[in-house]
């Protein structure tokens, strides 16, 4: 495929599969396009799954200026990517931070949105989840090898994801980290952590205002039943402000649902029918 290069010269990794209504998948804070592997497999023959890895993650280039790790720039990258593909409109699947990118798009380019699925993200974030992110972001992993990494991930996350098989924990470990004979490393630029900590010190935007700007756009919300980032209370407030919003809670999932669950696929198919 032809490389996608941003206006500031970064080559970003992407993948396109299938035919049908376009789904533009935007991943979470430190994640990449491989977080949508399960979704791409499940949606074969039903939609065109378009996946983008944001700057500084996975196989995408790292910018020289770490301050470009912000949701406004990432949303701009997404629009440039749509222009690169000649894609007039798409349904956005915004996983965690990718959902913030979708909210920015609602403010800056609403005409490009055929619909939005917010995956375990909302205008308010629970303190427990935020504290956990701020504690680990940008720090090298403590695990010495794959077995150590899998054991640590399982111990830390099994309460939120109690039904994952041993083989799935290994798949996720290899997906979320760089694992080699030399050990375990981050799969993203650690400067993302520096940018996030600095941004947290500044004035915080009114994300409810951004959420409200999605009025008129077909909208769906997924919440992991065990999520420590999107509270039940915030989800209920979102539903009150958007009574037409499709909603599903995914059992045995924390932050984030993997998007291959029955509830996740059903709500996505219902959203596509509206888009």
Helix content: 25-40%
**Helix-strand string:** EEEEHEHEHEHHHEEHHEHEH
Name of the CATH architecture of the largest domain: 3-Layer(aba) Sandwich
CATH class of the largest domain: Alpha Beta
User: CA-to-CA gap between the ends?
Assistant: 27 Å
Return Rg in Å.
Answer: 18 Å
General shape: globular
**How confident is the prediction overall: mean pLDDT?**
96
SS content category: alpha/beta
Strand residue content: 15-25%
| Assigned CATH superfamily of the largest domain | Alpha/Beta hydrolase fold, catalytic domain
Largest sheet: 7 strands, mixed
The CATH topology name of the largest domain reads Rossmann fold
Number of extended strands: 11
> What's the domain count?
2
Poorly predicted parts = none
Spatially, the strands of the biggest sheet line up as 3-5-4-6-7-10-11
Number of helices: 10
Give the SSE map.
Layout: E1 4-5, E2 11-12, E3 14-17, E4 22-26, H1 37-42, E5 48-52, H2 71-85, E6 90-95, H3 97-108, E7 113-119, H4 127-136, H5 146-157, H6 166-176, E8 177-180, E9 183-186, H7 191-200, H8 207-212, E10 219-224, H9 232-241, E11 246-250, H10 262-274
Parallel strand pairs: 4-5, 4-6, 6-7, 7-10, 10-11
Antiparallel strand pairs: 1-2, 3-5, 8-9
């Amino acid at each position: 495929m032809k490389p996608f290069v941003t206006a500031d010269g970064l080559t970003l990794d992407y993948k396109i599969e299938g035919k049908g209504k376009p789904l533009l998948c935007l991943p979470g804070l430190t994640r990449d396009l491989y977080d949508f592997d399960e979704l791409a497999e499940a949606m074969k023959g039903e939609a065109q799954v378009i996946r983008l890895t944001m700057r500084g993650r996975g196989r995408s280039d790292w910018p020289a200026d770490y301050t470009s790790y912000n949701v406004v720039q990432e949303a701009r990258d997404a629009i440039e990517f749509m222009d690169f593909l000649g894609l007039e409109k798409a349904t956005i699947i915004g996983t965690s931070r990718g959902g913030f990118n979708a909210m920015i798009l609602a403010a800056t380019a609403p005409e490009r949105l055929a619909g939005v699925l917010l995956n375990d993200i909302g205008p308010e974030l629970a303190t427990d989840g935020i504290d956990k992110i701020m504690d680990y972001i940008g720090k090298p992993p403590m695990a010495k090898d794959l077995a150590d990494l899998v054991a640590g991930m399982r111990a830390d996350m099994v309460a939120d994801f109690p039904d994952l098989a041993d083989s799935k924990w290994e798949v996720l470990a290899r997906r979320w980290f760089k694992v080699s004979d030399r050990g375990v490393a981050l799969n993203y630029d650690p400067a993302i952590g520096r940018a996030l900590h600095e941004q947290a010190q500044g004035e915080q935007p009114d994300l409810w205002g951004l959420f409200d700007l999605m009025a008129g756009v077909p909208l769906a919300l997924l919440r992991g039943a065990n999520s420590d980032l999107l509270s039940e209370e915030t989800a209920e407030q979102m539903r009150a402000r958007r009574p037409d919003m499709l909603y599903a809670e995914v059992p045995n999932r924390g932050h984030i649902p993997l998007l291959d669950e029955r509830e996740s696929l059903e709500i996505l198919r219902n959203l596509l029918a509206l888009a």
